[in-house]
Amino acid sequence: MRFPLPRIARPALAALLAALLPLAAVAQTAAPEGTAATEPAPPVEKPEPSLAEVVGDAGAAEAQLRQLETDLTPDAATQELAALIPEAVSQIEERAETAKQRIEQATQMRQLEDMESRWLAEQARVEGWRSQTTGRALAISESLARVAELTGVWEKTREQAKELGAPATVLERIGSTLQAAQITRDKITDMRAQTLESQAAIGGVLGVVADVLERSKRAKQAIRGGLLGTDSLPIWAAIAAREDLGDILDRAVAERR
After folding, report:
1. Distance between start and end Cα atoms, the chain
2. Rounded to an integer, what distance in angstroms lies between the CA atom of residue 158 and that of residue 254?
């Protein structure tokens, strides 16, 4: 969205022409001999800004600001997610500590696979939160850029209006538009702060989930290494986690008799 230059700023072109016309008149009076000199053109009066034009442009600008605020108003799903994240993050971090302990104590591949499946689902859920908050953060950044653009246009308009000697009523109307832009900017900045806070929490908990999955991966590799190692007995290794090796040998000898 591009914000057009308000009509109040357009008389600056007429002022520029008024400054250039006297130079053209001097050139004409210095014409060669035998050539009739042309009389200089009368000075061009600077057009006085119209209050009606300012009011119309200011009203359109303020309507655009209100629309930006409306577009960023969080819907029910966004509000629900913002309220959910702090408690959900705390619960995930607590469960992650328990999961780490269980991973260290796990002796069966099935235990680790079941646990890994649950944490992969958790990771997908949190990734969904990140996607949602990232989209909102981008929309907020774009809106802030639009407000900054509009503010720049109206600041330039105010400068030109002062140069043209605009009446106080015109300057006051321009000032109220700039104030409206500041209010909108403050509201959107607050929205951005809330979104950034949610993004930080989500990023942190994704790290926690990734740590759990990495620990599970290493534990599975350790079990595979123990079962497939060249110096180990695969069948006995699986049983020895629960029984004494001497009892296993005694039972094997008894069965041969």
Report:
1. 91
2. 103
Mean residue pLDDT across the chain: 80
d(CA 61, CA 64): 5
- The C-alpha atoms of residue 48 and residue 160 are separated, in whole angstroms, by 11
Distance CA 167, CA 157 (A): 13
pLDDT, tens digit, 9 for 90 and up, residues 5-14: 555 555 443 4
Kindly tell me the burial class for residue 221, based on how many C-beta atoms sit within 10 Å of its own C-beta (0-12, 13-18, 19 or more).
Answer: exposed
pTM greater than 0.70 (yes/no):
no
Task: Report percent pLDDT > 70 for the chain.
Answer: 68
Cβ-contact 87, 199 below 8 angstroms? no
Cα–Cα distance for residue pair 252/257, rounded to 1 Å: 9
**Residues 206/130, Cβ–Cβ less than 8 Å:** yes
Contact 184, 136 (CB under 8 A): no
Nearest to 201 by CA among 77, 79, 80, 92: 92
- Burial-class residue 9 by CB neighbours within 10 Å (0-12, 13-18, 19+): buried
In sequence order, what are the residues at sequence separation of 6 or more whose Cβ sits closer than 8 angstroms to the Cβ of residue 218? none
Q: 223-256: per-residue pLDDT in tens?
A: 888 655 544 444 444 444 444 445 555 665 555 5
3-state helix, strand, coil in the chain (%, to 5): 80, 0, 20
